[in-house]
């Protein structure tokens, strides 16, 4: 697809207003939730472009404190924030998170935008730009698409999406005050949706998780420095299956994860990984055999990988190509342990805890 400069003499008229600067402006975000700052960006975009292509991230993720709403719910919130006469100008695409492979994520965004532009215009030379607010390090993605002219919009002020989520989940005596803050920060249809969602069972579980994380962080609030936690995870492949455990409690209650846990002060990282693996699954494979079956290892350290705070995990791949699946049994930390066929695992993105799907995909060659 050509940039605006290369396409100046080749643009096909795709709407009644061909005098606008762009045919399409790309707007990338999670929109958790869609707030007045987002709306101001769209309002600005519609003054210089015929259509807005929303690239909505974090598709196929379980409900978490960072991603409480699925893609369909977020699209509804966005659509309801604009009048009927503008609906044809709003185009929606979605992408999954790929924490440890920026190139794959970039390709996914490019593919989604190119497909949307062709479907909407049939024109490979459409004038395409990228709009957004370069607020902090989290906005680094705005510089990943040099083929699209970047339109940087100023900070519109008001609450951030994180502040809106925290106020929405904070069940304290100042609930009316929180509701007023939210009402001032989001379009009215979004505010109505957020109030209605509070009656859903999913909201109750999110509040429990929110309270757990708040108390967890308060326990470390007196530390002179923000703590960095060290954990391990065991990716065990046996005869075309992977070994997963289902979390019994917050955070991530009910989600599937790799066996693992926190490093003790008196042990080495590999020792911790094998200890946690055997404790959580009662796996009947001797420790020396496990040590001899390590095929790969990697540190996974995305700053936002855990809601508990800065958490760096060391993951090990244990591989047993053939043989009967060993007996397993969940421990007190896990609700269930299960051997999952590889083909089934790759359909479990929306059931996996934190970045554990990304960890598995890395070792299993999917990314």
Automatic annotation (TrEMBL):
This protein's record includes keyword Thylakoid: no
Pfam families (UniProt xref): CTP_transf_like (PF01467), NUDIX (PF00293)
Record-linked CDD domains: NUDIX_NadM_like (cd18873)
Cofactor annotation: Mg(2+)
Highest taxon above the source species: Bacteria
Any one GO molecular function term: nucleotidyltransferase activity
UniProt keyword terms in alphabetical order: Hydrolase, Nucleotidyltransferase, Transferase
Residue ranges of domain Nudix hydrolase in the record: 227-363
Entry-linked Gene3D superfamilies: HUPs, Nucleoside Triphosphate Pyrophosphohydrolase
PROSITE patterns: NUDIX (PS51462), NUDIX_BOX (PS00893)
InterPro entries (alphabetical): Cyt_trans-like, NUDIX_hydrolase-like_dom_sf, NUDIX_hydrolase_CS, NUDIX_hydrolase_dom, Rossmann-like_a/b/a_fold
Protein name per its UniProtKB record: NUDIX domain-containing protein
């Amino acid at each position: 697809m050509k940039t605006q400069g290369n396409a100046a003499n080749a643009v096909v008229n795709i709407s009644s207003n061909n005098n606008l600067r762009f045919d399409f402006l790309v707007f990338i975000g999670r929109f958790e939730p869609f707030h007045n700052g987002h709306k101001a960006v769209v309002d600005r975009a519609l003054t210089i472009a015929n259509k807005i292509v929303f690239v909505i991230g974090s598709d196929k993720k379980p409900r978490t404190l960072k991603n409480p709403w699925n893609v369909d719910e977020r699209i509804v919130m966005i659509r309801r924030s604009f009048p009927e006469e503008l609906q044809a100008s709003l185009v929606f695409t979605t992408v999954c998170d790929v924490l440890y492979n920026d190139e794959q994520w970039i390709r996914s965004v490019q593919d989604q935008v190119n497909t949307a532009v062709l479907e909407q215009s049939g024109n490979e030379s459409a004038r395409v730009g990228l709009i957004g607010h370069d607020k902090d390090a989290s906005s680094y993605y705005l510089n990943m698409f040099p083929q699209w002219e970047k339109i940087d919009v100023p900070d519109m002020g008001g609450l951030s999406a994180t502040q809106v989520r925290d106020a929405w989940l904070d069940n304290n005596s100042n609930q009316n005050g929180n509701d007023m803050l939210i009402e001032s920060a989001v379009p009215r249809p979004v505010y109505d949706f957020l109030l209605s969602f509070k009656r859903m069972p999913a909201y109750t579980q999110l509040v429990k998780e929110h309270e757990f994380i708040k108390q967890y962080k308060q326990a470390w609030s007196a530390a002179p420095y923000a703590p960095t936690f060290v954990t391990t995870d065991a990716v065990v492949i046996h005869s075309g299956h992977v070994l997963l455990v289902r979390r019994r409690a917050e955070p991530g209650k009910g989600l599937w994860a790799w066996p693992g846990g926190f490093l003790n002060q008196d042990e080495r990282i590999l020792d911790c990984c094998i200890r946690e693996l055997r404790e959580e699954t009662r796996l009947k494979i001797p420790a020396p055999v496990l040590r001899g079956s390590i095929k790969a290892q990697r540190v996974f350290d995305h700053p936002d990988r855990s809601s508990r705070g800065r958490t760096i995990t060391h993951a090990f791949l244990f591989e047993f190509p053939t043989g009967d699946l060993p007996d397993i049994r969940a421990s007190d930390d896990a609700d269930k342990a299960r051997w999952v066929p590889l083909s089934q695992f790759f359909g479990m993105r929306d059931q996996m805890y934190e970045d554990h799907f990304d960890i598995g995909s890395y070792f299993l060659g999917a990314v």
